[in-house]
């Protein structure tokens, strides 16, 4: 069951009219390689925020609402999620993998009356504000043959990705054991890859070494 943070409606209203987007942050991983929950790592490095709070704050600038999909770590994430005015839902079977969390998040996007979504992973530090604005602008201007917009930095695909109803349905019709990247590749002609001059779209934090390397750049 999804619960709402008290500030959700206020945050949506403060940014004014925009395209209807539901934000999805996937945060159900066990963080086994990190040894601690990546969602709660300090970000920016000097704090006082976390990677999860940074992801929500970045997406809420462009989305009507933001849904965080948690797993067994759901109790530990509640305070951050609600404090940022986001919604929280739990994947009851996170062991099925990240794609199962994606499907849960997208079901909630549709249930809340949105046909488009901006999706990111909690271990991806949010890119620059101008990067997100550029991606949203490209998505808004796409033609009907394009189902998704994906950022690309130096030939490498990144996050967040923006998907329309067609791609959402393509994701949802697959089994929970499927792989999002394989589905994207199968629909490659329906995806617009946008070259972005921002290395953060491809940055991720899997290990303490990754985290230390990113911290040294800020």
Might you state the CATH topology name? Spore Coat Polysaccharide Biosynthesis Protein SpsA, Chain A
CATH class: Alpha Beta
**How far from one another are the termini?**
37 Å
Q: Over all CA atoms, what is the radius of gyration?
A: 16 Å
Structural class: alpha/beta
Principal-axis shape equals globular
Main sheet specs = 9 strands, mixed
Give the count of structural domains: 1
Order of helices and strands: EHEHEHEHEHEEEHHEH
Number of helical segments with 4 or more residues: 8
Please name the fourth-level CATH homologous superfamily: Spore Coat Polysaccharide Biosynthesis Protein SpsA, Chain A
Mean pLDDT, all residues: 90
CATH architecture: Alpha-Beta Complex
Q: What is the number of E strands? A: 9
Level of helix content? 25-40%
Which spans have pLDDT < 50 for at least 5 consecutive residues?
Answer: 1-17
The portion of residues forming beta strands comes to 15-25%
